[in-house]
Amino acid sequence: MIVYHGTTAERARKILRDGFKVKRGKVTNDLGNGVYTYCDDDNGAWDPYLNAMKFAKRFRRGRTCVLKVTVDDNEVRNNSLNLDYPGMPCEWKIVRKSFEDNAGKIWKGFPHSNAKKRHNIDGIILEKVFKSKNIFTDENNNAENPSCVLKQTYTSFISHTLSNFPNGRELVIRNLGMITKIEIQED
Q1: Whole-angstrom Cα distance, residue 12 to residue 86?
Q2: Which helix (H) or strand (E) holds 50?
Q3: What is the rounded CA–CA span in Å between residue 171 and residue 53?
Q4: How far is residue 121's CA from residue 102's CA, in Å, rounded to a whole number?
Q5: Mean per-residue pLDDT for 147-161?
Q6: pLDDT for res 184
Q7: Above 80 in pLDDT, residue 110?
Q8: For residue 29, which phi and psi values (nearest 5 degrees)?
Q9: Positive or negative, the Cα torsion across 25, 79, 92, 50?
Q10: What is the pTM of this model?
Q11: If pLDDT is split at 50, 70 and 90, which confidence band does 8 have?
């Protein structure tokens, strides 16, 4: 599977040299800890390369570029948590209720950052779920330590915009061992 990661040219060179690193100990993003990439969706509604480029231009300073990342198809197929499956809204309601007080306390303890400005504790809740056993599962029973997370999302590519409708699909790589190749994507 091919996915795309938007970043600065400087960070891209470092990633090509040293590989991706997953930072912990700060506010996590909406889908938990991992390397955030854009991927194809089942309907071909969004261009993942274009989304990665728009993300980099909107949220990164300096010259931007897109990394083309190849991930192991079997790992995506067999050990991913798909948060778009039909039963997830009911599951998430229960999970969120169980963890939101604790996640809110954790969120308050994190240092100030751009991610913290958004006041989103979903990623903290997901990290709690991954450490718990049998909290919820998707249609493939993948919730305990998945290699990656899939979700249709909305990214504010235009300043100060929000929407209830997704404009892309993200694949968050949690297991860096599933990455088989990284290269700079040329236009």
Answers
A1: 36
A2: helix 48-59
A3: 15
A4: 10
A5: 92
A6: 96
A7: no
A8: -80, 180
A9: positive
A10: 0.90
A11: very high
| Long-range CB contacts (within 8 A, 24+) of 98-102 | 98/135, 99/124, 99/125, 99/128, 99/129, 100/125, 102/128
CA 81 to chain centre: 11
Please report, for the chain, how many H helices and E strands are present, in that order.
6, 7
Q: In the 8-state DSSP scheme, what is residue 182?
A: E
Using an 8 Å Cβ cutoff, are 88 and 138 in contact? yes
The burial class, CB within 10 Å (0-12 / 13-18 / 19+), for 60 is middle
d(CA 132, CA 115): 24
Q: What is the rounded distance in angstroms from the CA atom of residue 136 to the CA atom of residue 134?
A: 6
Residues composing the chain? 187
